[in-house]
Amino acid sequence: MSERHVTFDMILASVGALTGLTRLDLLSDRREAGSGQARNTVYWLARQLLPVSYPVIGRLAGGKDHASIMAGVK
What we know:
Elements: H1 8-19, H2 23-27, H3 35-49, H4 54-60, H5 66-73
Helix pairs in contact: 1-3, 3-5, 4-5
């Protein structure tokens, strides 16, 4: 069986393709309709699929605080 490696960029691309949002939309701090939930989906998938901590996901997500990531995952 081959092992698949998921990256944060792959998660961003997948969520972006499903929601119609760009990478920039998903990484921004703007609070437009739909972007917040899509952003939280990125955080949740990253937490489930990547072997990294909340602070690392925050850095990958454009410098977000780990508490923001934790709230988004919840």
